[in-house]
Design a protein that fits this description.
Layout lengths: L2 H43 L6 E7 L1 H17 L2 E7 L6 H6 L5 E6 H11 L3 E9 L3 E3 L14 E5 L2 H13 L4 E2 L13 E3 L5 E5 L4 H4 L5 E4 L1 H6 L9 E2 L7 E7 L6 H10 L2 H11 L4 E2 L2
Parallel strand pairs: 1-2, 1-3, 6-9, 6-10
Antiparallel strand pairs: 3-12, 4-12, 4-13, 5-10, 5-11, 7-8
Length: about 290
């Protein structure tokens, strides 16, 4: 082969090599961009939801237990529910007012109405969750018929629950209240007829379970009965399911539109929560939704 042919053949190899080299170089340069784009797309479709913390104060039983039941579901929706148990329920509304918590769950509307004017609470109710039917408990008596003349009966001393207790006793035919009581408030002074001359011991609700040995009986809120490990089925009589005293979620006015509060309300009023309440508490706690 002549020099000209050798040169031409060499040129072909050089050009071919350049083309191959150029393709390889181009592929290498583009690969990271393609990979980055793919990763960017994947990241875009799997972008994690920004988590928001919602701090809620609650009574221990059943309120905190119900809240903890819905906690995982809210976590999936980007809400970190922080449940703070208050042993002194009287501090739950002040804590909400002072912005130590975002919401509370321990009270019914008649109780809130009885204190908000005096305390200056500017609160809103977002949803009803459950009713805790109050009942008459005794460590000495086995039936209502055993309540004798002059019996000492313990009742809560806060306005709304005191009225509630007296109404329950009236429903059982043990007393009769004055007509025209429309503000969910009453004391023993509002009793018009007391045929058995019952003596009423007004006390802080939380002390009533411990006071049973010194009384013929007491009207006690169910959450306190559960905390005291008293069998709620042992009540001699109790409110029925028509009780207006549903326990509610309460927030500062204006916060009821917050997305995380709406998610909490929705999570607390599902068929799963209803079943949880019925299975765990039986007659002691009744779903209000």
């Amino acid at each position: 082969m002549g020099k000209k042919g050798i040169f031409s053949l060499a040129s072909i190899f050089v050009v071919f090599g350049a083309i191959v080299s150029g393709c390889a170089s181009g592929g290498t340069a583009q690969a990271p961009d393609t990979k980055a784009a793919a990763q960017g797309n994947a990241a875009g479709t799997a972008k994690p939801t920004k988590e928001t913390t919602l701090k809620i104060g609650a009574a221990a039983v059943p309120h905190a237990e119900i809240l903890n039941f819905v906690k995982p579901k809210l976590k999936e929706q980007g809400v970190n529910l922080e449940v703070v148990v208050y042993d002194d329920e009287g501090q739950l509304n002040p804590a909400l007012k002072d912005k130590q918590i975002d919401a509370n769950y321990f009270q019914h509307v008649p109780y809130l109405d009885s204190v908000k004017g005096e305390k200056g609470y500017d609160f809103a109710v977002t949803t009803k969750v459950h009713v805790e039917p109050i009942g008459f408990y005794s460590s000495k008596l086995k039936s209502k018929d055993e309540i004798k003349e002059g019996a000492r009966i313990g009742i809560p001393n806060n306005p709304s629950n005191e009225y509630r207790a007296l109404v329950l006793l009236q429903q059982q035919g043990l007393i009769k209240l004055k007509d025209g009581l429309t503000t969910y408030e009453a004391t023993p002074k509002d009793i018009a007829d007391n045929p058995k001359k019952l003596k009423f011991i007004e006390a802080d609700s939380a002390t009533l379970p411990r006071s049973l040995p010194d009384l013929e009986g007491a009207i006690i809120n169910t959450n306190l009965v559960l905390e005291a490990k008293i069998d709620p089925k042992s009540a001699l009589f109790r409110e029925d399911s028509k009780s207006p005293y549903a326990n509610v979620i309460v927030v500062r006015k204006g916060d009821e539109t917050r997305d995380e509060v709406k998610k909490l309300d929705a999570a607390l009023t599902t068929p799963e929560v209803k079943k949880f309440i019925e299975d765990k508490y039986g007659v002691a706690v009744v779903p209000a939704f």
